[in-house]
Amino acid sequence: MIILLDHRGGLTASIDGGPATTVDNLAAFVALHERSHPRWVWDDTSWWYPPLLEAGVRVERCWDLRLCHAILRSSLLTTDSTLARAPRGAWDEPRPRPRAAADDALFALDEEPREEHPDPVAEYAAQRAAVEGSAQPARIELLLAVESAGALIAAELRHAGLPWDRDAHDAILTELLGPRPRAGERPEKLAAVLERVSAALDMPDLNPDSPVELLRSLRLAGLNVNSTGKWELREHDHPVVEPLLEYKSLARLLSANGWAWLDAWVVDGRFRPDYVPGGVVTGRWATSGGGALQLPRQIRGAVVADPGWSLVVADASQLEPRILAALAGDAAMIAAGAQGDLYAGMVASGAVDTREHAKVGMLGAMYGGTTGASGQVLPRLARAFPQAIGLVEEAARAGERGERVMTRLGRTSPLPSQAWATAQSDAGGELATAASTAQARSRARAWGRFTRNFVVQGTAAEWALCWMAGIRRGLAELAAGAWFTESAHLVFFLHDEVVVHAPSGQADRVVEIVHEAAADAGRLLFSPREVAFPLTVAVVRSYGEAK
DNA sequence: CGAGTGTGCGCC
DNA sequence: AGGGCGCACACTCG
After folding, report:
1. Is the pTM of this model over 0.90?
2. Which of A24, A151, A220, A479 would you label with A105, given CA atoms 20 to 30 Å apart?
3. With contact defined as beta carbons under 8 Å apart, do A271 and A304 qualify?
4. Average pLDDT over residues A412-441
5. Rounded to whole angstroms, what are the CA distances from A393 to A247, A384, A484?
6. CB A451 within 8 A of CB A282
7. Mean pLDDT, rounded, for A163-170
8. Which are the contacts of A53, defined by CB distance < 8 A and separation ≥ 6?
9. Is A252 near strand B, with its CB below 7 A from some atom of it?
10. Which nucleotide is nearest to A226 (CA to C1')?
């Protein structure tokens, strides 16, 4: 059963044959139809789902027309579809938000308001046609399904919130920075470290937060540095280095996740991040506000389960290199990862001498690094794992030629800019100079690094979506009809890691569910290839205890 | 004074 | 000559 909503929440079509009707009480209507397992089709999950959750309604499956449109618009699997050939339109834009009252006066004179809400019925038909006409309908359909499931999960993560202990957070800040100061003042321990920095530089009034001023002071003190970044500072032996790095770390903690952040983002013992599914070109999620995807390890101790509850923290081990091995069907690399630690397996296979070399070599292969230890191991990796290394090299060459590349399920990289293309064609022309040619080559290689990484990062994001969708389904079964926040539920996501908040009695079963979902995700993406995606799982009271 | 840009650093 | 982000702050500009 499939149900479509128009822009006001009116029911405009019922695909399984029922007559089109209009409903006033969306929440009640959804609840009424829950047992028939409908797939709800709507323009924007982030618009419709939060109020439904507030009303106590959980949606099992949906089809997010905007997210799906974005995928189908650019996928190499649907290039011939009517949807992809049509000019850009309303479905390529964010959903129009209602104007604030203050804005209404400005627009009151508009004689003919634009058609702000396009027809979801027609769009859904166009999307189905694009899928059915695709060269790989099963792949693209799976991608659309898990992208939409991700949108539901993002709304549920925000609704449930990450359990956050204000006192624990305050204790961490106080331990590291000193007691909370009055507004505008530096915490005492931060001020003390700054004293040591100033003394080492002999600059009593130094403002360490000004990169320009700090750089000038460092150079006056005899450090031959070109920036104030910690990577460069680390290389120097000078009395200012240690306290300055300490200052930077503490100042960062204070500004990014200090008391102000706590006041702004933690309400009633929950941190509610604003996840943005599909917010990154590769298909990764982004966040808007709160910085959930950059939650520093320093403060994870403030994430504490409710009394009688536990946190199940699970992360996929060496996800991206495993994804690469699976994508390429590289039997040697798949075998190296079959028994646990992938990098250790690569050493055991004789391909590389140390685990560290395996790791930096793979990171370099996936990011396009050429320098240092990474570049040195690459030839050996290429001999031992020709399919895996060949796949990223080919993705890089395609990007350098200005071509698009695709993830396992068909998400496709954007084309480089017009300026990029012009620079490339000019570089081969009669007016090219040595400088313009070098510049064009540099930009070509930069785009190649992007496409090289796109296939791996994007496919890893697809694995993570499949994994989370599987976890969500398993937890729903476990809940057996209970409201989802009363039973084990997802509360956090970080690219290759999830946190489930579970009644302690459910924790063992939750551990099984996350393992089963990981195995299912591998099969969904790569069957019939059998690729191991092992997890590190911990059942803890506090997120800080994991890993 | 606010908007826009650059730097630096947190996460993967 | 290392991929993808978001955020806070300093700084510049109008």
Report:
1. yes
2. A24
3. no
4. 87
5. 41, 15, 45
6. no
7. 95
8. A155, A156, A159
9. yes
10. B7
Q: What band does A10 get if pLDDT is binned at 50, 70 and 90?
A: low
Residues 6+ apart with CB under 8 A from A201: A217, A218, A220, A221, A240
Q: pLDDT over 90 for what percent of chain A?
A: 66
* Beta strand pairing call for A2-5 and A39-42: parallel
**Is 90 exceeded by the pLDDT of residue A4?**
no
Distance of alpha carbon A424 from alpha carbon A391, whole angstroms: 24
Residues 164-193 of A with CB under 7 A from strand C: none
* Displacement of CA A30 from its chain's centroid (Å): 30
DSSP A260-282: HHHHHHEETTEE---EETT-STT
Which tokens hold the place of A250?
């503490």
A232 residue type, one letter = E
Tokens linked to A510: 């939750």
Mean pLDDT on A423-439: 84
Amino acid at A502: A
Q: Which of A238, A149, A62 is nearest to A470 (CA)?
A: A149
- How does pLDDT run across A90-141, given as a tens digit for each residue? 999 887 766 444 444 444 434 334 456 788 888 999 999 999 999 999 999 9
Cα distance between residue A116 and residue A113, in whole Å: 8
Q: Kindly report, residue by residue over A17-47, the tens digit of the pLDDT.
A: 555 566 667 677 777 777 778 888 999 999 8
- The DSSP code sequence of A236-249 is ---TTHHHHHHHHH
Q: How far is CA A243 from CA A166, A189, A216, in A?
A: 29, 12, 17
Sequence-distant (≥ 6) Cβ neighbours of residue A416 within 8 angstroms: A399, A402, A447
Closest residue by Cα to residue A529 from A343, A330, A394, A386: A330
Task: Give strand C nucleotides closer than 7 A to any protein Cβ.
Answer: 1-11
Token pair for A497: 């890691």
Token couple for A375 = 């570049």
Quote the CA–CA distance of A469 and A485 in Å, as a whole number. 17
Asked whether residue A485's C-beta has any atom of DNA/RNA strand B within 7 A, the reply is: no
Residue A14 CB coordination number (10 Å): 16
Residue with tokens 């001020």: A191
Q: Is the CB of A219 under 7 A from strand B?
A: no
Name residue A352's amino acid: V
What value does the mean pLDDT of chain A take? Answer: 89
Residues in A 300-339 whose C-beta is less than 7 A from nucleic strand B are: 315, 319
Of all protein residues, which has its CA closest to the C1' atom of B11? A294
Which of A75, A63, A196 lies closest to A134 in space, CA to CA?
A: A75
Of A190, A194, A195, A193, the residue nearest A180 (C-alpha): A190
- DSSP, collapsed to helix, strand or coil, labels residue A505 as helix
The C1' atom of C13 and the CA atom of A212 lie apart, in whole Å, by 18
Cβ–Cβ under 8 Å, residues A525 and A327: no
